[in-house]
Specification:
The complex is a heterodimer. Chain A is mostly helical. Chain A is built from eight helices and no strands. Helix content of chain B is 70%, strand content 14%. In chain B, strands 1-2-3 form a three-stranded mixed β-sheet. The chains are: A mainly alpha, B alpha+beta. At the A-B interface, helix 1, helix 4, helix 5, helix 6 and helix 7 of A face helix 1, helix 3 and helix 4 of B.
Chain lengths: 345, 155
Amino acid sequence: MKLLALFLCFSFFVVPVSALEIEAPQVPEKAKIWMPETTDSFLDGLCELIQKSVETIYPDIREASSVCLGMLAVVLLISLLQSVSSSVKKASETAGTVTIAALLLLSTNSMIHLASDTVLEIGNYGKLLLPVMTAALAAQGGISGSAALYAGTALFTTLLQSAMSNLLVPGIYLYLALSIGNSATGEDLLKKAGDLLKDFLSWSLKILMIIFTSYLGLTGVISGTTDAAALKAAKVTMSSFIPVVGGILSDTSEAVLISAGLMKNAAGIYGILAVLALFLHPFLQIGVHYLFLKLTGAVCTVFGSSRITGSIASFSSAMGLLLGMTAAASIMVLISTVCFMKGVG
Amino acid sequence: MQQFGQYVVTLTAAALISGMILSLFPEGSLRELIRLVCGVFLTVTAILPLMDITLPNLPAFGAEYLAEGQAAAKFGEQMAKESVQLRIKEQLEAYILDKAFQMGAEIMADISVNESGNPESIQLSGEITDVMRRQLQECITNDLGIPKENQQWIG
């Protein structure tokens, strides 16, 4: 049943039967505004995409800077209060942590939603692009390689999406809760548990990426060699046919392979630009918040208490984790698309 | 993954609760006792769910995606084959029409090609003399490898 659905899915994106026609799925509606006008040249498309994304990032810079200025004011106020009277130190630190958390939770929450939506959208687009690239590579002779690439990419993309909703996003919320708890109470257990959770989350992502890239590398070498040998054997067999038919068969197969390769590359470039259109703007948005938090944390270290600056640092670490997740999702689809584009051999 | 995520969430929540409870007590013997209780609570929370965790069946999961990948590859292979067959058919028909034109005859040709792109049979129609027909039959047999019994003349 699933295979039937998959076949129906292909027929929407690949118009086959008599003509060899391969097209990447249309970029999702949300990312259409970032998509370059022309996708013929990858470099031009990429430049246009970056330009569009950078031009529209100013509202986020303003928002992040206003939040950070608010935080600086709070930390400064707490420091002033502590310098006037040391008896209110603990209470002021707790109040400061709660205020910082209240200031940052709203923007962090929207960034977490943005990151998880982006991972989901990239994964869903990847699932539409994958069958097209698989069919294109198979049309070019990479039959076993394309199937293995598809299986690996689909499996790891699903794993990342599942990890995102079940582990990474709840994990980030818990990490923030632990860090705020540590800053408010000064309890060492909370700090250690928070650090352990952060390390666990970042290592989970790293391990997933390492296994994925190793799998792609090994699959590329093993299946690529098998497919290249099969293709060479087929060409030798063709040229040993009756002169006229053998010649026509050989030339036609060569022409089909070349046209499949050209169409696959065009679909691949469009697919890469579409994934970047989905990824780049949210990544920059989260990146801006991350950088501003890092900067604020560094400035606050000069005059703020260590517990309050620690809570700012933990929010920036959470943003760092979000950046890692979003990047991992897009890198998975990008690397696999490049592997498909590399072709046979 | 859901079960594993739940485990991490439970463990972290237990650490959070323990930390919050500990922070309520000032340094002293009572705090040490509470610390011990929290330690036991955390250990139980960490160990107990591990007994129930079942590892996901990754090979079956991977096999499902491999089957999908093979279906997509088969589709691409079939698409390429059909494209090759169509182009070969067109080129061989053009070759025969060209041969006939050189002899001074105007005919129509319809060639059937098999899975691997080899011509199997041909249907020819049009006004042609017997000599020309024999010459063309020879040409089709020698150049395209279609035996005479698979060459059908209409009209």
